[in-house]
Amino acid sequence: MSEATFNKAELAKYNGQDGQPAYVAVDGVVYDVTGVAAWAGGKHHGNLAGQELTAVIDEHSPHGRKVLKNLNVVGKYVEA
Question: Which residues does the UniProt record annotate as the domain Cytochrome b5 heme-binding (predicted)?
Answer without folding.
Answer: 6-78
